[in-house]
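Handoff note, outgoing to incoming analyst
You'll be picking up this chain. Sequence as last confirmed:
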Amino acid sequence: MLDKKTFGQYFTKKDLWLKPQIKKFIEDSKCKIVYDPFAGEGDLLKISDEYGIEECVGLDIDDSLKWIYNDSLENIPHIDNAIIITNPPYLTKYSASRKHLINDKLNKYFMYHTDLYQLAIDKILEAQEFAVVIVPETYINSTFFKEHLERIYSITILTENPFADTENPVCVVCFDNVKKIPPYIKVYADDEYLNDYSYFNELKLKPKNDYSIKFNAKEGKLALRAVDLTTADKRIEFMEVDKLKYDLSKIKVSSRLITIIDLDCSNIELKQLVKECNRILNEYREETKDITLSPFKGNTKDGKRRRRLDYKTARSIIEKAIGNLNEMEAKQC
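Most recent structure output, in case you need it:
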């Protein structure tokens, strides 16, 4: 067997995931058994009996461990009166291909999923009514997330990393057996309640594509640092190209963190556009609590989650800024 980290299996070494609202969810489930189908070193099975847990059951594909042998990406057996608490493997199909790991078994796993944790969630929800699952935070804004809206009770974004061997941003998702129509999903950052997921979803910006805007266009005049750096004063920001201080020859078609933008708005002063784009961006980040932005590896030096601005949302911000400035100019005339 290859190293487990090769297959995206990271071991939870800290109990940072066990926030008050998650403890309450475990208690309210009334389950007497904690069940981990991806048990690994058993860290998540160390749940205090004060939460009503009387028994621990673990499964793992590594037969050298003390658990019952089982390939839980194939099937997870049902256990009466049990709540699954687990940290499934994370491995994208792209990463597996890049690492030359693809074989018949992985091909089968990836038949309908782009990441192993997605397959794991499907198997978990087939097996048990209640589950607490630590997954990549990117799950929240994925299309796969929408398939589980009726089963999700809450999402808790973990600012501090519970893993010893990766900085992968994660969240804890609690699933229950109550179908919610429309879905009402509580969103937390650590132990702070932020709002219902539908609130953040409604705030998402969607481009109208009513202006010609090209990203990764070296001839452009508008620059975008689309990711927070580790220092607090170097956040996602629109700027003039000459203030970017970056080798423009490194800009490629596939660039996603730093880009040059070419757009058709000759009637608008670039400095005004930059200022309005940043005003809209910062207002959007404050209003959404950054929930709608993609998480980025690691935190800033002041302990905040780094974020990345996708180009679809960036386009929406630029469109809105152009529209606002055109409207202001029309009023002045």
